[in-house]
Amino acid sequence: MTTSSEGALPTVEVMLRDGSAAELRPIQPGDRSLIEEGLAHMSLQSRVARFGSGIAHLSESELDYLTEIDLIDHVAWGATIDDVPAGTGRYIRPGGGDEAEVAVAVVDEFQWRGLGRTLFDALVTSAVHNGVGGLYFSVHPENEIVLRMMRGVGSRLDDSEGLIVGHFRAEDVPLGQHHSEFVELLKRYQTAP
Predict the structure, then answer these.
(1) What are the structural domains, with CATH classification, of the chain?
(2) In angstroms, rounded to a whole number, what is the distance separating the alpha carbons of residues 61 and 132?
(3) Which of 73, 123, 124, 75 is nearest to 95 (CA)?
(4) Rounded to an integer, what distance in angstroms lies between the CA atom of residue 154 and that of residue 123?
(5) 159-190 residue pLDDT tens
(6) Mean pLDDT throughout 129-142?
(7) What values do phi and psi take at 160, rounded to 5?
(8) What is the pTM of this model?
């Protein structure tokens, strides 16, 4: 675990396939501008693949929803590379049930480096730590990046209403190499005032 600069929030530093370093940490209410900047740097194609539409701006209530989270039933990790917003991973467990919907978005210039998989690993670690048993996702059929990753973790895929829906058990996904760092950081943020 590292703290990148004086007063900065602690992060987990992860080396990506191309040798660049990404810093990951749970998203906080003060991250609204990072969310907006990341969305602004996503291509129309990436926004459609992730959100199902070409959404270019978020409302104040949407930003509240995406940044004011409890880190138990709604967990979100943000990643930066050289202090530039690079991606987010999020799960939402409606009503505290056993299953949560998971989603990952990576800014175009940072794709194909392994960041999406790293954010996914942070989410799976968080889910296991918080007692979430099942994870599910919905993606556009052309989102081959996500579909390839989900097939790799043994996800059961179904074609439903124009989207591909997948289900898998969090505990069946092999833990990533940063598992203990993610758990330690998540606990730290969960107990912060």
Answers:
(1) 2-190 (3.40.630.30)
(2) 26
(3) 73
(4) 16
(5) 766 777 788 889 888 888 999 999 999 999 99
(6) 85
(7) -140, 120
(8) 0.88
